[in-house]
Amino acid sequence: MISFWERESLLQYDVIIIGSGIVGLQTAIQVKEKHPDYDVLILERGLLPSGASTRNAGFAATGSLSELVADATHTPEAALVDLFAKRKSGIDFLRAQLGDVAIGYTSEGSHELLTEAESGVLDYMDHYNQLLKEVSGGNSFESADQQLATFGFSSGRFKHCIACSTEAGLHTGKLIKSLLRLAVQKGVEIKTGAEVHHIEALNGKNEVVVKDGFHDSIHFKAAQVIVCTNAFSSRFFPGEDIQPGRGQVLVTQPIAHLKVKGIFHFDQGYFYFRNVGNRILFGGGRNLDFITENTTDISLNQQIQDHLAEILRTDLLPGQEVAIDMQWSGIMAFGTTKMPIIKSLEGNIHGGFRLGGMGVALGSMVAVALAQRIE
User: Fold this and answer.
1) Tell me: the pLDDT tens digits for 66-106?
2) Cβ within 8 Å of residue 296, ≥6 positions away
3) Residue 42 · residue 189 · CB < 8 Å
4) CA nearest 56: which of 332, 366, 270, 363?
5) What tens digit of pLDDT does each residue of 229-250 get?
């Protein structure tokens, strides 16, 4: 049972945010900047964020040329430019807000690798450079075939290389820690291990019901609730176009004389790798098993993990001794389009979700839009 003191002082808030990933933390920060006097609470079901915010590859990505070419078959070019611009704006926002050092931002180059069968993508380079010139301030893509030998990749698979000027790497852990620190500085309260069971309306307010090991449940109250749970949002927004997508990731032991520097992607962005110091972090392969990876279960798909390890040894680091240090997965959210969903329901319940595997780039822009809905 709840005490009088708890009911009066510990359960009443102006705004409750569900989820402490990039979108949740950034939304809390933006709400406090707009309404400094508001009491803002974040509820996170895990001791650490549960989705992909701390389980991704650390890419500040805007999208590859092959991705744009593929998406143009079903998406108007104006929408592609808008999404590209939103991704770049989100990255620029984080850098200005927190600083490059605080988020481990490293601009060591971004490259897309193409097989000979994919070389037709190069024919679209001038077109998309012109289309994106105002967003990028120059060419977004340039041929860099000469770099292939520099990185030490096998010559058997990758025949072409495209440099992507608008992308870089960052340190996901540092990013989340910096957002946490800023949120707390602004007076945001954060409770972890607080799994929200449901939201119910009562007397003009929202009751956010949380499972608790000591009490049967705890009912937090707020005039406004914001759902920032990405792939896990269907329970609060049933019927929305949200498909979970699990991403497999591995990281190697340190590698002597590693030539790979920067971030890389291939196969329309379904595979991605980078150096983390003298290690390689490699992820992706969801397209090898869409059905199995359409899940919110955070576990390994050993078939995909084995495939990643094989590509690593055969194509990326041929002839080198490679040992795997860690393997994990993270849950992303996709749909029929790559634009995120920002929506409000009756009773002042808002949500921002389905970030299409681009939470680092899009999360801050979604958060700003959500905060604008809070009065």
Assistant:
1) 999 999 999 999 999 999 999 999 999 999 999 999 999 99
2) 231, 232, 244, 246, 331
3) yes
4) 332
5) 999 999 999 999 999 999 999 9
Q: Which two tokens stand for residue 350?
A: 């808002």
pLDDT-derived band at 50, boundaries 50, 70, 90? confident
Lookup: tokens for 346? 């009756």
Q: What is the pTM of this model?
A: 0.96
Pick from 367, 15, 371: nearest CA to 205: 15
CB 281 within 8 A of CB 251: yes
Tokens of 32: 């406090």
Compute CA distances 215 → 5, 138, 164, 212, whole Å.
15, 58, 53, 5
Cα dihedral across residues 244, 245, 246, 252: positive or negative: negative
Angle CA(51)–CA(94)–CA(354) in degrees, nearest 5?
A: 35
The superfamily (CATH) of domain 243-334 is D-Amino Acid Oxidase, subunit A, domain 2 (3.30.9.10)
Tell me how far apart the alpha carbons of residues 185 and 29 are, in angstroms, rounded to a whole number.
9
* 8 A C-beta contact, residue 136 and residue 39: no
Domain definitions of the chain by residue range: 4-53+174-240+337-371, 69-168, 243-334
Tell me: domain 4-53+174-240+337-371, CATH 3.40.50.1100, correct?
Answer: no
d(CA 129, CA 370): 31
Given its phi and psi angles, is residue 37 left (phi above 0), alpha (psi -120 to 50 degrees) or beta?
Answer: alpha
HEC readout, 264-278: EEECCCCEEEEEECC
- The rounded Cα 263 to chain-centroid distance in angstroms is 15
b (16+ CB within 10 A) / e for 311-344? bbeebbbeebeeeeeeebbbbbbbbeebbbbbbe
